[in-house]
Design brief:
alpha+beta; 8-stranded mixed β-sheet; 35% helix
Length: 231
């Protein structure tokens, strides 16, 4: 597979002009299909809603031609604000972890890592989980955020993925949603490249060539915007 044929996009779900665009729809459908199945399997959830997808500040998505490969949701929080500290997201965080996170001001959250079943490593020989975490780290490093946080689903070995990029384990082998998770944090000093140079080359290429997904971008294939996104 020629990784240079992969397209990387970041879009804001709050941009209502995108809501009916095919790439938006395909990104949502992939995310929804994987996570509705996951939460049904883990906690018996029968109806999985779109709130977390639509409320995320940014959605990062990879496409091969018109087929979505993977999706990752990003959020930006100000932890000096009581309103942000009271987000329902943190109900899954033990107090000892939450207290460590509160020592930072601006943080980025990555969550809901989603890889299409057609693009798993067993089929492609490329770990798109690693690729997309690498892109999240790039997004973080090109921002004014002080920390990047998440909690990982360990039975899928996502903890191993984030540690390859320099994550620190704030609390390991905890239980959330009936599965073992690690609470992790990456800062500007701990972040590092992937140990596999070939995989890091893919990450670098996709970051350097990503396009913000906008109406203008979709309607003009020659549209190019500055690579760095202001936080």
């Amino acid at each position: 597979m020629d990784y240079k044929k992969i397209s990387s996009y970041i879009f804001k779900p709050s941009n209502l002009d995108l809501a009916t665009e095919p790439k938006f729809q395909k990104a949502y459908e992939l995310w929804n299909s994987i996570w509705s199945e996951t939460f049904n399997e883990l906690v018996g959830l029968e109806k999985f809603y779109s709130d977390d997808f639509l409320r995320s500040h940014e959605v990062s998505v990879l496409f091969y031609d018109e087929e979505p490969i993977s999706v990752f949701l990003y959020n930006q929080l100000n932890m000096k604000s009581k309103a942000f500290q009271n987000l329902s997201y943190f109900k899954n965080y033990p107090e000892q972890v939450f207290e460590q996170i509160k020592t930072y001001e601006n943080i980025m959250v990555m969550g809901y890592l989603t890889v299409s079943k057609n693009w798993r490593k067993s089929i492609t020989n490329i770990s798109f989980s690693d690729v997309h975490v690498g892109l999240a780290v790039k997004r973080f490093l090109n921002s004014n955020h002080q920390a990047l946080i998440s909690f990982t689903r360990n039975n899928r070995k996502i903890n191993d993925v984030v540690y390859r990029f320099g994550a620190k384990g704030l609390l390991k082998e905890h239980t959330a949603h009936n599965v073992s998770v690690d609470y992790i944090l990456i800062d500007k000093f701990s972040a590092k490249n992937h140990p596999d140079d070939d995989l890091q080359t893919i990450v670098d290429f996709l970051w350097e060539n990503y396009k913000p997904l906008t109406k203008e971008n979709l309607n003009n294939i020659e549209y190019i915007e500055e690579r760095r996104i202001a936080a």
